[in-house]
Amino acid sequence: MIIIKGGALVCPEGLRRGDIALDGGKIARIAASIEPGADDTVEDAAGCWVFPGFIDAHTHLQCWTGMDWTADSFETGTRAAACGGTTTVVDYATADRGVTMDEALAEWRRRADGTCTANYGFHMAIAEWGEDSAAQMRRMREAGVSSFKTYLAYDHLRLTDAETLQCLECVRDLDAVLCVHCENGDIVNELQREVLATGVTGPEGHPLSRPAEAEADAVSRLLYLASIAGAKVNVVHLSTRLGLDAIRAARSRGQQGIFVETCPQYLTLDDTRYLEEGDDGFAGAKYVMSPPLRKPADIAALREAVLAGEVDSIATDHCSFNLHGQKDRGRDSFTRIPNGGPGIEHRPAVMATSFEGQLGPMELMHLMSEGPARVFGMWPAKGRLAEGADADICVWDPAARWTISAATQQQAVDYTPYEGVEAHGRARLVYVNGVLAARDGEPTGEKPGRYVERG
């Protein structure tokens, strides 16, 4: 057995001082004190918080996005995740037009199986709707996929409102969750044309073409459609106060089954980054992601919502592209800069640092472990410290001090949006299925990650 001794255990019922024993990929015992046997491995967790492994339920690894392949594969991305304290990711498999969901799931399994340091599950993104789509969704449910995704933007991915409604009705019948990218695609397309016509071609044009109103309109529309269908929805990567207002309005009407996800970048970085100098005036491309970074007022509103318990989970939307050789191909037009940014490795540290003194270990656990486990069908095996639960553990040292830098990260990308941040706290030990996967931010070389079938 592996015995982690003397830590502050972040349990569902609250913090407790004690020891935790791991055996056979499960938490075998939790007690005030566990006496080790001769063959047991003992790790000292004094001064540390012992979390259930963090879950990142929004990633895009080893993925073709229509412009390029992401810089991070499942191998590099899950290794980076584990080094930061994340033991499970839920990635977006995508059934592109002309591809069945069965084919997409098989392809994403092929990419991931046998390569992963962290555990991995899949949402199924649906890019077209046809007569057989509902049957395909039922087969996905049987294969352990309990969440789906649709888009209200991107011409090659989005469904019509009528198709979205049909999808929501199927989601309801399957007791699943629909994750939705909420931007008004028609408005984005028109504003991109108008911004380019004014002569603005650099990264600063990206936020101009995707205003807060485009997000709020789509959030509101989605929630009305979900109300008609009686389906559960997860608003992904919420970035604006206006979008938050639409969610609050639906909740005030008594609508149930609304889950909210936001990301560290929308809680810490604002749209002045698009004017960042360096790299021949193209450094702002590092922050070209959709939705874009927003105004300080949006950041303040979302942070207040996090503190008020209005947000169910913090994910990354990790979709990494190198600045050099990938993003810089869009120098002549911001519309040709691959959308996305890295974050899978640094989410726990950025959250713990940014909200130091505001969010304690219980709140961090709810947002980055228990919340996504409950929303996406992994509870109670994951997302909690309890006897019989999976042995996915992050021993977190809140006293650690270190500097986030691309030069030392595990992410296979040439920058981090958090370059130079002095982080407060670090994952000291990370166990995946009871196997030590990372120590002090460095991988052990083990690849214990398994496919997670979600209920």
Automatic annotation (TrEMBL):
Coiled coil: none
EC number: 3.5.2.2
Transmembrane segments: none
EC main group: hydrolase
InterPro entries per record: Amidohydro-rel, Hydantoinase/dihydroPyrase, Metal-dep_hydrolase_composite, Metal_Hydrolase, Metallo-dep_Hydrolases_sf
Domain Amidohydrolase-related: from-to ranges: 49-435
Keywords: Hydrolase, Metal-binding
NCBIfam families attached to this UniProt entry: D-hydantoinase
SUPFAM superfamilies (alphabetical): Composite domain of metallo-dependent hydrolases (SSF51338), Metallo-dependent hydrolases (SSF51556)
Keyword Oxidoreductase set for record: no
Cofactor(s) listed: Zn(2+)
Family classification: Belongs to the metallo-dependent hydrolases superfamily. Hydantoinase/dihydropyrimidinase family.
GO molecular function: dihydropyrimidinase activity
Protein name per UniProt: Dihydropyrimidinase
Gene3D superfamilies hit by this protein: Metal-dependent hydrolases, Urease, subunit C, domain 1
Pfam families: Amidohydro_1
Keyword tRNA-binding: no
